[in-house]
Write a structure and sequence with these properties.
The protein has helices at 26-37, 58-65, 78-91, 104-113, 130-142, and strands spanning 48-52, 70-74, 97-100, 120-123, 150-156, 164-165, 168-176, 179-186. The protein is an alpha/beta fold. α3 links the parallel β2 and β3. The longest helix is centred in the middle third of the chain and has 14 residues, at 78-91. The chain is globular and about 40 Å long.
């Protein structure tokens, strides 16, 4: 696993064995960021990210590498949160991030209390936790933190989290192998 592009391009990221971690593959991350930048590498400059169910932190770190000014990592596992910290430290990233070692809905609540405004929200619960998709998307659909954000969901191809969840509606769906990325935006 490595950083695909940007300031930390080709630098490796660590993972943990034995945890319920399934890092977003390099290929799927590359597809995601290609879609979000649409041929404009500067499109992410100054953006603010939430990496929910962060695991290794690969997506949020990729965003920082590509010019995001802030990435919030929400991860309930202590070992995984420590891994995110280690990956950031190894890359020499000392600012522009916050790691919240919390369950996803509590992390969202904390960001709401802080009145955080996000540009991108990436969520990738363990595939077996189907209800985590519905719970997180339902909360995000009601939350001010997603008002101007793209919400990107990684899920199994054979599982569909839905075309509309509250005020979020899917605007794009990308299949790649056994994984799918669903992109949502708030209804205006």
């Amino acid at each position: 696993m490595r950083i695909i592009a940007g300031k930390y391009r080709s630098r490796p990221l660590r993972s943990l064995r034995g945890l319920d971690l399934r890092p977003t593959s390099d290929r799927l991350r590359e597809t995601l960021f290609d879609v979000l930048t649409a041929g404009n590498p500067e499109a992410l400059e100054g953006s603010v990210w939430l990496d929910l169910f962060a695991g290794t932190g690969a997506v949020g770190i990729e965003a920082l590498s590509r010019g995001a000014i802030m990435a919030y990592f929400v991860e309930s596992s202590k070992r995984a949160a420590e891994l995110i910290q280690l990956n950031l430290k190894t890359l020499g990233i000392s600012a522009g991030f916050e790691i919240l070692q919390k369950e996803a809905l509590r992390g969202i609540a904390e960001l709401e209390r802080k009145h955080v405004s996000l540009n991108f929200i990436f969520l990738d619960p363990p595939y077996r936790l189907k209800s985590a998709y519905a719970d997180a998307l339902d909360r995000l659909g009601k939350s001010e933190i997603s008002r101007n954000a793209y919400v990107v969901v990684e899920h199994e191809r054979k599982f569909d989290p839905g075309t509309e969840i509250g005020s979020l509606h899917r605007v794009r769906k990308l299949d790649q192998g056994d994984a799918t990325l669903s992109l949502y935006q708030r209804e205006t």
